[in-house]
Amino acid sequence: MLITAIEPRRKAMSALYLDGEFVMNLDAQTLIENRFDVGREIDDDELREIIRLSGERRAREKALWLISYRSHSKKELSDKLRRTCDVQSAEAAAERMEELGLIDDREYARQFSRKLLFQKRMSKRHAVYELRQKGISQEIIDEVLEEIEIDPRDQIREVIEKKYRNIQDERIRRRAFAALQRLGHSGEDIRAVLAEYPEYSEDDGI
Questions:
Q1: Please, what CATH class does the domain formed by 3-99 belong to?
Q2: Which of 7, 32, 119, 136 has the greatest count of CB atoms below 10 A from its CB?
Q3: Sheet of 21-27, strands arranged across
């Protein structure tokens, strides 16, 4: 196959033409580094290799952009990369970011679990589910959550004080109960805390 044209495209890409026919857009820097010039003869193996190299470069660049925006778990990063890259390139890029120390599932799990427990006031049980969704191993989850001491009833009180100030109202209590259950708190803990806030009665004159 003969490279008959290489034309610049947007986002540092170039269109590759073989034997007068457009083949695909590839990363321009990869083409330059591998001396893919007009007039060069290439075979199928060389074409497959340049496609692989181009895909991996683009995946690494996208990975760096994503982790500059916020931290990611390895699985989360790989899953996002797969939206625009092939599976092999996405996994290779995530692996490389881990090797460079730019992503770290253990440190990610520490930060994410604290956000879930102290900001969103989720229960530890629900935090386990959320961490699993991010691809964190059970070993790391157990280790990270073991480091954190937190009273679920204090979490419930904080949610009530922040979002349900009129908690004596029966409708508000039901709404709060449902919301706290969605955060993973047990019915027993929720009822125990709600008992600290007496409901309105007719004798209250309200």
A1: mainly alpha
A2: 136
A3: 3-8, 13-18, 21-27
